[in-house]
Amino acid sequence: MRKVNVGVIGFGTIGTGVVRALKERRSLIAKRSGIDLVLKKICDKDLSRRRGFSVKNALLTRDYQDITNDESIDIIVELVGGIHPAKEIIIEALKKGKHVVTANKALLAEYGQELFKLAFRLKKNIYFEASVGGGIPIIQSLREGLISNRFEAIYGIVNGTSNFILTQMCEKSVSFKEALVEAQKRGFAEKKPTLDIEGFDSAHKLVVLTQLAFGKFVRLEDVFVEGISRISLDDIKYATEMGLVIKLLAIVKNEKDELELRVHPTLIPEGHLLASVDGAFNAIYVASDMVGDLLLYGPGAGQNPTASSVVSDIVSLAEKLDIDGNSQQFNFVQSPHIRRLRKIDQISTRFYIRFMAIDKPGVLAKIAGILGKYGISIASVSQKERRRARIVPVVIITHEARERSMRLALERINKLAIVRESVAIRMEET
Amino acid sequence: MRKVNVGVIGFGTIGTGVVRALKERRSLIAKRSGIDLVLKKICDKDLSRRRGFSVKNALLTRDYQDITNDESIDIIVELVGGIHPAKEIIIEALKKGKHVVTANKALLAEYGQELFKLAFRLKKNIYFEASVGGGIPIIQSLREGLISNRFEAIYGIVNGTSNFILTQMCEKSVSFKEALVEAQKRGFAEKKPTLDIEGFDSAHKLVVLTQLAFGKFVRLEDVFVEGISRISLDDIKYATEMGLVIKLLAIVKNEKDELELRVHPTLIPEGHLLASVDGAFNAIYVASDMVGDLLLYGPGAGQNPTASSVVSDIVSLAEKLDIDGNSQQFNFVQSPHIRRLRKIDQISTRFYIRFMAIDKPGVLAKIAGILGKYGISIASVSQKERRRARIVPVVIITHEARERSMRLALERINKLAIVRESVAIRMEET
């Protein structure tokens, strides 16, 4: 049986899951794939921490160059996370003739172009199944399962923390803050949750998905990002009344060969499959020209699901290695179709808008008048009853409207003395 | 760029989609995969039919041996369907040193063991993504994405015809027959729909999935099969009232290293993701030990989705070919874990039972008495009101009960003079 030697750099949560799987499932994997994966070395700065199982001392090192310099190693798994030294490790590994497996979405979002181009030049591959959607085989599906497809759009719930919080708010009728605390208690949110709740983690993953599906390198700055921290329980309740659900979606759409890239809370119909994705789960909806609609759902994080994806990358790479250690390469086609990226101002969606307005005659006429002036037409209005309240919520659903028009209209409306607050949430029907 | 030569046998609906994709997307596929797929020959008995695009005459043949005997061809695509001569074509192709791609679930369900063993002995692969779930990359996900996982259960909506009919009944409040006619009108059901509506097509697919996931060759006869033709609109309505949905599920479960294999109409909670799978769509729910819950959803049939899966198999095989035309092989591990297959009588589920009974005192006591005698305990009962009716429906939900006990109890109950009809539908909570 063919042996393929593997080195793991980063022996934290995911690394521990990967090492355990390589140890305990070596024979299962060998039987299924015909490849004997040999774990040659593990690197981490902290070698004293307990991992729940024993690893031979000879396998362990604190110096990652013990792995990148080991000529017998074919595949290096980078699970250090963060930008530095993860980037340097991957570059060195590629230059030393190794293929690379990584779960590092932040690095791929920021330096993907540089890394993938280097890998391509050196005839090596970087595989990254675990960087998006945890245990969901979304990357392989896009890269191989749908290889003959042109992609039209991807809608993803790719941040489990945010989805858990929104689900809690909806099911338990609690505020954003209470739901966040609960998420932190259960280990679904970090102490500093900004990356997750403000949409940046989703944006990282969106960049990775976009590069793969649309063959275009995009930057984080090309993604419009809005998080969920300003979503109120009221808006969730009004949405529910209208048969809608609020999800933090990462969206990329090809509209007439222009790409839209955005992450924001989004109202979708409750009958939509993405609306049923609850708790810390992830799901990615892909529209492509041959297959049509495809949805993949599963755990977006966690030691074992993520380790499962890392190991599947190792096997996939190993299967493709020839005797010289080279392999067929997936190429990020620079799509000649994509003419440009749309700025957020040029994008159109339907909107849910909630105004807190003083309850007196003529309020609605004033608001509607301004919307009309900016070419925004109203699909429905409801004034939510509040007993003896001086300030009442007015909820408006618009037809499709330009972002720029909406922004300008809201600026005008917010200046009205009768309006105390306004909230706008984009809608998607797909 | 490496060239890989492909021959297509069977130029019908799917074959036409495959040939079109290979023609029109050759450069897209080559850019992405680094492999130039060359369509060398196409075989069909009927070469005169219009396919909507032109194919060079030199490519066409009526004799499949022109393809199996062509030494330059690396991969043969079998899209003839049915058992004969599809089986002979695949055997001949393997013996002549070709890898094989097929969409033929009936053949794989019946002769998979023989074919896969032959392929393994000859160091060739048979790929079959298109045999289950049309455009959904379920086979690759099980084979590669989840390669380090042990599987616990698979629940699939894998027959679009049945799912379309059940969805129509539910949404339009029409009878099974009316829904079937509508499905036939729209091209979702064949004139002779038995294979689809009686569950046999789902059983074929279940056998294919089971072999792959559980590493055990099973026969069609090992699958308990019950179709949807006896599902009444009343049962769908009562289910809806209880927050349940009826789906035709193909189920394989590993219960203490014993496999359960069954296809039957199943009541599931409306909040379950599978409950939202409507119309002709398919979805496969997979529970495995590292990833946990995974669901893949997409089109279960159709020319382009199925062709997409076939082409992805061709590329996956091509990527793994070495210069001798051999490749790494997926092996169906004969799982030493699976001790035996459970017969349907030994399986336990919860049940929905509906009796049509004469409306007089003591009816329920009699029915409940018999159920109790067979150790079946009742979770809830409701007698559906029917104005001035002499015969009324009584709906009972049981706790988990053995199939055998249920069968015997129903036999007894059906003999009661007060009972005119009984219907039992299994439930799953997962």
Automatic annotation (TrEMBL), chains A, B:
<dbReference type="GO" id="GO:0009086">
    <property type="term" value="P:methionine biosynthetic process"/>
</dbReference>
<dbReference type="InterPro" id="IPR001342">
    <property type="entry name" value="HDH_cat"/>
</dbReference>
<keyword id="KW-0521">NADP</keyword>
<feature type="domain" description="ACT">
    <location>
        <begin position="352"/>
        <end position="427"/>
    </location>
</feature>
<comment type="pathway">
    <text>Amino-acid biosynthesis; L-threonine biosynthesis; L-threonine from L-aspartate: step 3/5.</text>
</comment>
<feature type="binding site">
    <location>
        <position position="105"/>
    </location>
    <ligand>
        <name>NADPH</name>
    </ligand>
</feature>
<dbReference type="InterPro" id="IPR002912">
    <property type="entry name" value="ACT_dom"/>
</dbReference>
<comment type="pathway">
    <text>Amino-acid biosynthesis; L-methionine biosynthesis via de novo pathway; L-homoserine from L-aspartate: step 3/3.</text>
</comment>
<dbReference type="GO" id="GO:0046872">
    <property type="term" value="F:metal ion binding"/>
</dbReference>
<dbReference type="GO" id="GO:0050661">
    <property type="term" value="F:NADP binding"/>
</dbReference>
<feature type="binding site">
    <location>
        <begin position="9"/>
        <end position="16"/>
    </location>
    <ligand>
        <name>NADP(+)</name>
    </ligand>
</feature>
<keyword id="KW-0560">Oxidoreductase</keyword>
<dbReference type="InterPro" id="IPR005106">
    <property type="entry name" value="Asp/hSer_DH_NAD-bd"/>
</dbReference>
<comment type="similarity">
    <text>Belongs to the homoserine dehydrogenase family.</text>
</comment>
<dbReference type="Pfam" id="PF01842">
    <property type="entry name" value="ACT"/>
</dbReference>
<keyword id="KW-0028">Amino-acid biosynthesis</keyword>
<dbReference type="GO" id="GO:0009088">
    <property type="term" value="P:threonine biosynthetic process"/>
</dbReference>
<keyword id="KW-0520">NAD</keyword>
<dbReference type="InterPro" id="IPR036291">
    <property type="entry name" value="NAD(P)-bd_dom_sf"/>
</dbReference>
<protein>
    <recommendedName>
        <fullName>Homoserine dehydrogenase</fullName>
        <ecNumber>1.1.1.3</ecNumber>
    </recommendedName>
</protein>
<feature type="active site" description="Proton donor">
    <location>
        <position position="205"/>
    </location>
</feature>
<feature type="binding site">
    <location>
        <position position="190"/>
    </location>
    <ligand>
        <name>L-homoserine</name>
    </ligand>
</feature>
<dbReference type="GO" id="GO:0004412">
    <property type="term" value="F:homoserine dehydrogenase activity"/>
</dbReference>
<dbReference type="InterPro" id="IPR016204">
    <property type="entry name" value="HDH"/>
</dbReference>
<keyword id="KW-0791">Threonine biosynthesis</keyword>
<dbReference type="Pfam" id="PF00742">
    <property type="entry name" value="Homoserine_dh"/>
</dbReference>
<dbReference type="Pfam" id="PF03447">
    <property type="entry name" value="NAD_binding_3"/>
</dbReference>
<dbReference type="InterPro" id="IPR045865">
    <property type="entry name" value="ACT-like_dom_sf"/>
</dbReference>
<keyword id="KW-0479">Metal-binding</keyword>
<keyword id="KW-0486">Methionine biosynthesis</keyword>
